[in-house]
């Protein structure tokens, strides 16, 4: 069943995943993980899971759906222990199936290991082949399972999971922010480029917490301590916290889209609070792409801070021209043709009084495929706006992402196929202005050398193997060809 999926998704399918971990003897770790995952729900809505250790063994519960749908009091009560990790998933490698949900669990002779991953390995295919040639029977079709199985195989010879992770890190090429659970430790691991965020917090002075974003620390009352450094392995166990710098990085390459769109605005990522970063982008955009208009409106909710920044700098009033229904789930029945003709708008509805007779600047964070934007511009016009000037706080998205954002097919990117003028025409705007790459860096106030900008520039900081196709279903196709995979899968977020 694919026909009714995602057509109503307002953002154009750009989520990643969220990971969480806690070492907290005496704390209700499954409940704390539940709330941590709830705060990370925006990073993935396809599936979620929690793995817990009581010091003797690991229990895991994972399901398809939202965190609030999957876990109830009974499920949390069964997950008892002192250590836990959790995951919210949006598929960027491997399809939307329970087998690919996380945390994934494998065994070695010392017990079970659970792993939760945000990112994408670019050499997953090659590593999977090596595992299969060594006799491993893989059950899922994601790079995360490849990483987990590598650690489990290495744990015996290396003398434990901690050493096994350190031994595997130099072999993993790509983006990975991980939380890993053993029966007596929780680990946090970040790739040497630091593509995806991962931070450390402390709760009640003694429990150690790891999370993709600092918003997940706030929700459980933990304080932010620091980020996990690129190339670092951090271990929390009964002896406290210890760190190993495992792989030195030639450079850091945090995904700039974390600032533009992906992370929650109240998360501190690297040197900036995302809300302030977005507001700075709006100000810069107003300098570089002014417009003759009477009001600045955001596309809710991701365009909000940039629209506020644009209004501040341009001197134009900020207004709400679009009202969003917050309760539309990711999979939702589309209106049929008759309802569409009646103008049934499920996610956004225009506020006519704010738009009628006015020239409007509509600010959003990006245009990926372009389909949503056309509908929104039309809606604003039909509400009586005299002109619609679209301003985008990021540069044109021209290159696919191979590091954990689902846009890995270049033909889907309108910025790769069309000039800015053609895009303007396609979305039906009176004018269209994009941020430049220089404007982006100036607005963020962050050095180019610290960021991945590849989807705007085509310059990939982590080399992409030439002979690899790299779509999110590559491992699936391989498993299917070899008769080992689940061929009846469905793809979300397209
Ligand atoms: Fe982020 Fe784009 Fe780099 Fe992917 S290619 S990590 S979306 S900046």
In short:
The protein is of the alpha+beta class.
Description:
- The chain is α+β, with helices and mostly antiparallel strands and 494 residues long.
- The chain is built from 18 helices and 23 strands.
- The protein has a seven-stranded antiparallel beta sheet. A six-stranded antiparallel beta sheet has the order 5-6-7-8-12-13, with helices on one face. A four-stranded parallel beta sheet has the order 17-20-21-22, with helices on both faces.
- A hairpin with a 4-residue loop joins strand 7 (177-181) and strand 8 (186-190).
- The protein starts with 17 loop residues before the first strand and ends in a 13-residue tail after the last helix.
- Iron/sulfur cluster (SF4) binds at residues 195, 255-257, 401, 403, 405, 452-455.
Strands, total number? 23
User: What class would the helix/strand composition place it in?
Assistant: alpha+beta
Low-confidence stretches: 1-14, 480-494
Shape assignment = globular
Number of domains: 2
| CATH hierarchy, class of the largest domain | Alpha Beta
Kindly, what is the distance between the CA atoms of the first and last residues, rounded to a whole number of angstroms? 13 Å
What is the helix content?
A: 25-40%
Q: What is the CATH architecture descriptor of the largest domain?
A: 4-Layer Sandwich
Which ligands occur here? iron/sulfur cluster
The share of residues in extended strands comes to 15-25%
């Amino acid at each position: 069943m694919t026909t009714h999926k995602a057509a109503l998704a307002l953002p154009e399918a750009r989520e990643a995943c969220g990971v969480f971990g806690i070492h907290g003897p005496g704390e209700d770790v499954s409940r704390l993980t539940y709330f941590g995952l709830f705060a990370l729900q925006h990073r993935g809505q396809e599936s979620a899971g929690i793995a817990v250790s009581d010091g003797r063994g690991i229990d895991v519960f994972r399901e398809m759906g939202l965190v609030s749908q999957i876990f109830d009091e009974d499920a949390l009560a069964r997950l008892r222990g002192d250590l836990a990790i959790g995951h919210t998933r949006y598929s960027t490698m491997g399809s939307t199936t329970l087998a690919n949900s996380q945390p994934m669990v494998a065994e070695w002779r010392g017990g079970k290991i659970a792993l939760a991953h945000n990112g994408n390995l670019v050499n997953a295919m090659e590593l999977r082949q090596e595992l299969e040639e060594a006799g491993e029977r893989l059950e899922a079709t994601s790079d995360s399972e490849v990483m987990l199985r590598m650690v489990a195989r290495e744990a015996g010879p290396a003398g434990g999971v901690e050493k096994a992770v350190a031994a595997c890190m130099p072999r993993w090429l790509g983006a990975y922010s991980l939380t890993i659970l053993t029966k007596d430790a929780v680990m946090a691991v970040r790739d040497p480029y630091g593509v995806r965020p991962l931070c450390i917090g402390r709760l009640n002075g003694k429990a150690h917490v790891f999370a993709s974003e600092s918003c997940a620390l706030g929700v459980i009352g933990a304080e932010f301590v620091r980020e996990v450094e690129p190339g670092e392995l951090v271990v929390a166990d009964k002896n406290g916290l210890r760190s190993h710098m495992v792989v030195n990085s030639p450079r850091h390459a945090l995904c700039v889209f974390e600032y533009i769109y992906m992370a929650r605005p109240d998360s501190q990522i690297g040197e900036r609070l995302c809300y302030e970063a977005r507001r700075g982008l709006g100000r810069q955009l107003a300098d570089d792409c002014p417009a003759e208009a009477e009001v600045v409106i955001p596309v809710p909710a991701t365009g909000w801070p940039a629209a506020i920044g644009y209004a501040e700098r341009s001197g134009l009033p900020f207004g709400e021209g679009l009202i969003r229904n917050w309760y539309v789930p990711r999979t939702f029945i589309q209106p049929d043709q008759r309802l569409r003709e009646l103008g049934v708008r499920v996610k956004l509805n225009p506020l006519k009084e704010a738009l009628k007779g006015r020239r409007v600047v509509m600010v959003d964070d990006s245009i990926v495929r372009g389909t949503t934007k056309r509908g929104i511009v039309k809606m604003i016009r039909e509400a009586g706006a005299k002109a619609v000037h679209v301003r985008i706080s990021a540069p044109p998205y021209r290159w696919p992402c191979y590091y954990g954002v689902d846009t890995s097919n270049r033909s889907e990117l309108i910025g790769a196929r069309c000039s800015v003028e053609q895009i303007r025409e396609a979305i039906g705007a009176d004018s269209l202005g994009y941020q430049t790459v220089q404007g982006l860096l100036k607005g963020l106030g962050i050095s180019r050398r610290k960021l991945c900008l590849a989807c705007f520039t085509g310059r990939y900081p982590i080399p992409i193997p030439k002979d690899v196709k790299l779509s999110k279903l590559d491992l699936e196709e391989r498993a299917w060809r070899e008769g080992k995979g689940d061929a009846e899968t469905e793809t979300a977020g397209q």
